[in-house]
Amino acid sequence: MAKAKGYGETRAYNAPLKTDTYIFQDNGLIPNSRLPLIVRQGAITPGSDDPAKPFEETFRRNGWTGTWRNGIFDYHHYHSTAHEVLGIVSGSASVRFGGESGEIIGLTAGDVVIIPAGVGHALLNQNGDLLVVGAYADGREYDTLTDDPNVIAEARRRIAQVPLPDTDPMDGAGGPLTKLWTQG
């Protein structure tokens, strides 16, 4: 696994403040991705009446649809047919990305994580009433796969066919994702 905080260490694009990126290599059970996982701290302020609404509206406005409200599965899983965005509405969580030997990332209310197709993720623990809003790029249907060696070859094939999103889930066509995911 290569880690690039703030992206300046591995790319020329100057991402917004409080943006971290991580690249995870295929570990034989979780395919992961050549595309970086993007963590935007404090990207969206939860609403007062309906804290999840600003996340849902922002994601939808930028073409990330199929929104849901829930938590994060507590087992390693990934999606081979869609890129996913998670917005932390309330509470906080420690999530391991990249599989069993991946990176543990602390997330709090207002944080947004953009997960490339294939990148494993699992909730390790949570504090408070964790509420997450999730959505998928360009309205794509998603699957949920685990670290099963019998499905990884087919999953890698599907991941390679997932198109890059047209927009960043927070900032639209000019957002960091559209620059970070098209370089190098």
Automatic annotation (TrEMBL):
Q: What protein does this entry describe?
A: Cupin domain-containing protein
Q: Which Gene3D superfamilies match?
A: Jelly Rolls
What range(s) does the Cupin type-1 domain occupy? Answer: 77-135
State the organism named in the record.
Microvirga puerhi
Q: Which domain of life is it from?
A: Bacteria
InterPro entries attached here? Cupin_1 (IPR006045), RmlC-like_jellyroll (IPR014710), RmlC_Cupin_sf (IPR011051), UCP019307_cupin (IPR014500), YjiB-like (IPR047121)
In residue numbers, the region (Disordered) covers: 163-184
Entries under SUPFAM superfamilies matching the protein: RmlC-like cupins
